[in-house]
């Protein structure tokens, strides 16, 4: 089994609904995102997937979130834009974009809202 890990980042604002405290007010983060994928089979170049392809997929997903108010995004109009839900959103979008690579499985997505606080989404 092979695992590949890449990181990228985006900046956005959000506020948490039904929350009592500072985070219920509009505020922003410079989010760091870590994507972990895995697979058993290497291609004829003996790589799982080109890092360049993987980075482009993640960048495309993050472009939906970058420099915007997350609460205005359709996905977060029915869900709170918490770190937990942001990691799930990214996971689902990357998984969808990797359908043309059946040998690759998205293992987890971790979203850091600060250097000391993160949330990870993975499927059981």
Measured by DSSP, the beta-strand proportion falls in: 25-35%
The fourth-level CATH homologous superfamily is 6-pyruvoyl tetrahydropterin synthase/QueD
* CATH-defined fold name: Tetrahydropterin Synthase, Chain A
Q: Widest sheet: strand order?
A: 1-2-3-4
Name of the CATH class: Alpha Beta
Count up the helices. Answer: 3
List the uncertain runs: none
Structural class label: alpha+beta
CATH architecture identity: 2-Layer Sandwich
Mean pLDDT comes to 97
Oligomeric category = single chain
Number of domains: 1
Gyration radius, to the nearest Å? 15 Å
Shape field: elongated
The strand count comes to 4
**Fraction of helical residues:** 25-40%
Largest sheet: 4 strands, antiparallel
Can you walk through the features of this model?
Strand 3 (105-114) and strand 4 (117-121) form a beta hairpin. The protein is an alpha+beta fold and 124 residues long. It is 26% helix and 33% strand. It has helices at 51-63, 74-77, 83-97, and strands spanning 2-14, 27-39, 105-114, 117-121. It has a 4-stranded antiparallel β-sheet with strand order 1-2-3-4, covered by helices on one side. Helix 1 crosses helix 3 (83-97).
């Amino acid at each position: 089994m092979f695992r590949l890990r890449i990181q990228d980042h985006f900046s956005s604002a959000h506020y948490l609904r039904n929350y009592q405290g500072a985070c219920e007010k509009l505020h922003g983060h410079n989010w760091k995102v870590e994507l972990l994928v895995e697979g058993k089979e290497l291609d004829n170049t003996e790589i799982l997937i080109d890092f360049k392809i993987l980075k482009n997929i993640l960048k495309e997903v993050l472009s939906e979130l970058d420099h915007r108010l997350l609460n205005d995004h359709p996905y977060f109009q029915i869900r709170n834009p918490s770190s937990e839900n942001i990691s799930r959103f990214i996971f689902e979008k990357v998984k969808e974009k990797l359908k043309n690579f059946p040998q690759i499985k998205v293992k987890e997505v971790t979203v850091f809202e600060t250097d000391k606080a993160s949330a990870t989404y993975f499927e059981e």
